[in-house]
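Review this today:
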Amino acid sequence: MTLKILAGNAHPDLAKRIADYIGEPLGGVHISRFPDGEIFVKIIENIRGADVYIVQPTSFPPNETLMELLIMIDAAKRASAARITAVMPFYGYGRQDRKDQPRVPITAKLVANLLTAAGTDRLIAMDLHAQQIQGFFDIPVDHLYAAPVVVKHIRTRNIPDLVVLSPDPGGLKMAYGYANMLDAGLAIVAKQRKSATEVEAINLVGDVEGMNVLMVDDLCTTAGTLTSAAKLCKDRGAKSIIASVTHGLMTELAITRLKASPIEEVITTDSVPPKDWQGFNVRVLSIAELLGEAILRVHNNQSVTSLFRV
């Protein structure tokens, strides 16, 4: 079965790096707009009977990128692709994974339904906002982690007296994994969310006095959680603070907050397109090889388990 890699407009640079690693050219796709804004997709080459991988993080603007992905999947299905795998380095609408208040949607499940209905046979995703999102699908899901890439980088820096901190209780499992891999201490901040952009850090469990703190989270949009947790750590005597977030979705507000915070550096990945960091110290690590290796292994019916190891 022929391997074909297609890409939408969300992050063509990442798709190109993945294709280069695999050693296959990106498939030709023409994407344009009708005069009223509707999306038009045409796959340029023959994909009949092919194993098709469509690379598209549904990041900003999420509605455009998600709709583009769904239409590309439908086009591939109607072009008689043998198998269609959606490769979503960032899974948009994943924050709403449960009903935490009356009369609200579960958009993570809605997106799962849309992908399946469009004709997706398999999903490759990275650092989902909640692990249970995998259970929203009735198709195979390969859930990858950025941890191997980030941990390798952190180890090269030989940071002494390291403590891994989760800025909220939901990220404790992720922080625990990082702490084990880095042989570091563990701490957690309890928080209260005031609104979509405002977070109040309430208390810190764990010892950070005189320690170098590595905060880990799956995504950052407004940096309210990170900066409030960092301030609390600094007040408790932390020596230095850096943050690692898989999906750097930072807005202008986030960058302003980061500049005014005790956070010295942010480590992130290229799961979403790069931002203008306005001089803030950011290190971007590439996940192209990790995703490329996952695609190769899925295509060849091999195990992807070893990709979780550092």
User: Anything to note?
Assistant: The first strand starts at residue 3 and ends at 7. The chain has two domains: 3-145+289-303, 147-286. The domain at 147-286 is CATH 3.40.50.2020 (Rossmann fold). Helices lie at 12-22, 62-78, 107-118, 147-157, 172-182, 224-235, 252-260, 288-299.
